[in-house]
Amino acid sequence: MEKAKLARAKYLEKENQQTVTEQSSLPLESLIDFPKRPSHSEVDENDDVNDDDEDVKEEIQPVVGKNTSLYDFIPTKRVYTDKELLQQHIARVATFDDSLLEVPVKVIQEQVPELPEDLKFFVYPKGDISKFPNPKMKHGNLLGYYMMDAASLLPVIALDLQENDSVLDLCAAPGGKTLAMLQTLKTENLTCIDESWSRLSRLKDISKWYIGETPSSMSVSKTDGKLLEDPFYNKVLVDVPCNTDRHVLISEDNNLFKPGRMEERLELPTEQMELLVAGIKSCKPGGTVVYSTCTLSPAQNDGVVHAAMDHLWKETDIDTVVIDISYLRPIFRDIFTFFPKTKYGQLVLPTLSSNFGPMYICKIKRIR
Fold first, then answer.
1. How far apart are CA 239 and CA 279, in angstroms?
2. Measuring CA to CA, which residue among 322, 306, 173 is closest to residue 241?
3. What residues form the annotated binding site for S-adenosyl-L-methionine?
4. Which phi and psi angles does 338 have, rounded to 5°?
5. Would you put residue 164 in left (φ > 0), alpha (ψ -120 to 50) or beta?
6. In 25-172, which ranges are continuous DSSP H helix?
7. Does the structure show a pLDDT above 90 at 285?
């Protein structure tokens, strides 16, 4: 009796497996009880349905393909992890593909400007890795010189400051480029803004240590530069926050490549574009804007310039052109090494014999 029960159980199990196998070979419609499609007569009887309303008809008469399979709704080759998707997003954010450009950007030539006579700087020859001693207090309790990356002077030189210029330093702190602009003695008024109190405090300290009292022509304020819109200035410097490649290499503390700051790093190109757009809006027609970073990232350099042009072209009536500043190369070839394949600006590359940069500079003129 027990043997008979066991044999029957095995038979039923085998029969059930065969039934499932046979059913799985049937079309999906045979396995799933889809709602019956309403006939045309049923649709016509509905007084609330307009014959011309195609969206309503589509909703009433859903189309289910005969070959529909559940496998149509999941990846058939590979499922990406969150980490892999994030890596792909990082790669897209860090890349500038000029083959995808739609908005035309005009690049024009200009006369080579004269170097400011009162802007004095000293560097060792190429290949000489000597270091300058720390500056000491001199007459009037002022420090004798300010040490900075020599490539950081190029944005100031590209601005081509003239007598009576009204200048905006959009991301002024910590103040090295501000100090260089003051040294040219050509600014009628210089407005320095930054959104960080701690960084502005550093700028004020530099002014006190190297100039003494803050010049009457200079004003400092805590402001979000992205909110500026009124065209009050004829020269604007937009030295934006960036990856700060050199700082990342020499400092492990809280640099932008820490995992906890990943989101901040991914948002940088958008923030940079908004700052550049605000800088261009703050510039009078006929004035010029210099955009600069200290990163090698193409997306934060040429990519941001084009994104800003694209935004202005689509969202405003502002016209701009890029000014070719390749004239900087022969002037400074004995000091800096320039990357030859940028699209809009110039990029100083750090090398063993000329360890300056990275520094990207692009000059833009507002036409209207």
1. 10
2. 173
3. 171-177, 194, 239
4. -105, 140
5. left
6. 28-31, 40-45, 54-60, 82-93, 154-159
7. yes
The closest alpha carbon to 256, from 269, 274, 237, 239, belongs to: 269
| pLDDT higher at 258 or 195 | 195
Between CA 280 and CA 319 the distance in angstroms is 10
Dist CA 308 CA 340 (whole Å): 23
Would you please indicate which residues are annotated as catalytic (active-site) residues?
A: 294
| pLDDT at residue 216, as a whole number | 87
177 contacts 155 by C-beta, under 8 angstroms: yes
**Binding-site residue positions:** 171-177, 194, 239
Tens digits of residue pLDDT in 252-274? 777 777 777 778 888 899 999 99
| Residue 49 Cα distances to 46, 93, 101, 177, 245, angstroms | 6, 47, 45, 69, 63
Residue 107: name the closest of 310, 355, 362, 292 by CA: 362
State both tokens at 297: 């990232």
110-366, CATH topology level: Rossmann fold (3.40.50)
Burial 103-139 (b: 16+ CB within 10 A, else e): eebeeeeeeebeebeebeeeeeebeeeeeeeeeeeee
* Token output for 121: 């700087």
Pairing of strands 233-239, 346-349: unpaired
Cα–Cα nearest to 192, from 359, 182, 183? 182
| Tokens 């640099």 found at | 255
Q: In sequence order, what E strands does the chain have?
A: 107-108, 165-169, 187-194, 218-222, 233-239, 283-293, 320-323, 337-339, 346-349, 359-366
Domain ranges in the chain are: 2-79, 110-366
Locate the DSSP E strands across 36-186: 107-108, 165-169
